[in-house]
Write a structure and sequence with these properties.
Elements lengths: L1 H25 L5 E6 L7 E6 L8 E10 L2 E2 L5 E5 L5 E5 L10 E8 L4 E8 L5 E6 L6 H8 L7 E3 L4 E3 L4 E3 L5 E6 L2 E4 L2
Antiparallel strand pairs: 1-2, 1-9, 2-6, 3-4, 3-5, 3-7, 7-8, 10-11, 12-13, 13-14
């Protein structure tokens, strides 16, 4: 009798832990944010996505698909990022686009690539900062990033087939997550 009760109690505790962990992960939502593009053929598109300060330090994967008049402008690379202390995920496009995007589809995943939230945003096909959501957004990431288009520590990775910028995080072949410090120097963060 005692062992059945102990097993039942263990199962119930495991179930409650599972339910709690699922609800915490699933609670991350896109609150709003800002996009910036300058419009030159060499200019990147910058995004700053607000998920809330309660997620500061969380590792996520963000994917943004840009399009114009229904035609895709990019492949929507999945980029590992860490939510900053202000609750934002900051990411720049891997490529510049010939046209201004008029639509963005944002997807945020946990570090296991389970979808946490997604949002579609209608953009004006013009240069400048565009915000979405209801909050007053801090544009400092976008303003700092757009004023200095070059990252001297960035390099092109043939293995990943993309640019890797200072501060980007990647999963290494050893299964650990690494942050690029610039000039192909890395630090393990897990």
């Amino acid at each position: 009798m005692f062992s059945r009760n102990k097993i039942f109690l263990s199962l119930m505790i495991s179930f409650l832990i599972l339910i709690c962990s699922i609800s915490v992960c699933a609670a991350m939502e896109i609150n709003g944010g800002a996009f910036y593009t300058d419009g030159g053929l060499d200019d990147l598109t910058y995004a700053s996505i607000d998920v809330g300060t309660e997620y500061s330090g969380d590792d996520v994967v963000i994917q943004i698909f840009y399009s114009r008049n229904g035609s895709d402008l990019n492949d929507g690379n999945m980029v590992p990022k860490t939510v900053n202390s202000k609750g934002f995920i900051n990411v720049k496009s891997a490529d510049s686009y010939k046209y201004f995007p008029d639509h963005a589809e944002i997807k945020i995943y946990d570090s296991n690539k389970k979808l946490l939230d997604s949002m579609e945003v209608k953009l004006s096909p013009s240069k400048g900062i565009q915000t979405f959501g209801t909050n007053d957004y801090d544009h400092s990431y976008i303003e700092e990033s757009s004023s200095s288009n070059d990252d001297p520590g960035a390099f092109y990775s043939k293995q990943s087939n993309c640019m890797i910028y200072t501060g980007d995080t990647r999963e290494g072949p050893d299964g650990h997550t690494w942050r690029h410090l610039g000039y192909n120097q890395w630090e393990q963060i897990d």
